[in-house]
Amino acid sequence: AQLTIAVLVGSLRKDSFNRQLANALAKLAPPDFAFQHLRIDDLPLYNQDDDAHQADVVLRLKHEIRDADGLLFVTPEYNRSIPGVLKNAIDHASRPYGESAFAGKPAGVIGASIGAIGTAVAQQHLRGVLAYLDVPTLGQPEAFIHAKEGLFDADGGIGAGSREFLQGWMDRFVAFVRRHASE
Ligand code: FNR
């Protein structure tokens, strides 16, 4: 059977390195894995007053997360944390209390930055949030990707310099999701 991975990209930027990374990673997955990018740019700002009547776009997001076999977070680092747009989406899908869409979904966390430490601090913050939401995350290998010339090849795949490393990352992520799906 097909396994679906819900992809959450923490950047709304048109030419986002992280969106390109998400697309390139999908090419490294086996054919029974399908990657679905979830929209987060049309969500309202989270307001707890709306918990009793969540907007249709929020219900859509929660439905997509619940339907998925795994999650893939591909995020930049903004000011040493995760971007507000990603936290906003997570807050929406975690509510109302007791009706989180996240519980038990296995997740991979990865990100690319033009900075030298490649989203390490943002990923650490995200792992803390996900631990609270009962989302098990792939611990190793960690992947802090430096967005520099040659990261992607001409076809939008991972460039030669990082391909072996990121194939190894994807293989571990795939095994992690399969293990959870069979439980
Ligand atoms: C950044 N950037 C950044 N990079 C980093 O490594 N650590 C950081 O704390 C920050 N902080 C930060 C804040 C804000 C508001 C912006 C707009 C940018 C730079 C960031 O890595 C770069 O813009 C990436 O290209 C963003 O990812 P996308 O949009 O290409 O996916």
Automatic annotation (TrEMBL):
SUPFAM superfamilies named in the record: Flavoproteins
InterPro entries recorded for this chain? Flavoprotein-like_sf, FMN_Rdtase-like_dom, NAD(P)H-dep_reductase
Q: Does the keyword Flavoprotein apply?
A: yes
Identify the domain of life.
Bacteria
Write down the required cofactor(s).
Answer: FMN
- Can you provide one Gene Ontology molecular function annotated for this UniProt record? oxidoreductase activity
Residue stretches making up the NADPH-dependent FMN reductase-like domain = 4-147
Per UniProt, which keywords does this protein have? Flavoprotein, FMN, Oxidoreductase
* Leader peptide range in chain numbering: none
User: Which top EC class applies here?
Assistant: oxidoreductase
Please state the Enzyme Commission number of this protein.
1.-.-.-
Instruction: List the PANTHER family hit by this protein, alphabetically.
Output: CHROMATE REDUCTASE, NAD(P)H-DEPENDENT FMN REDUCTASE LOT6
Q: What is this protein called?
A: NADPH-dependent FMN reductase
Source organism per entry reads Lysobacter yangpyeongensis
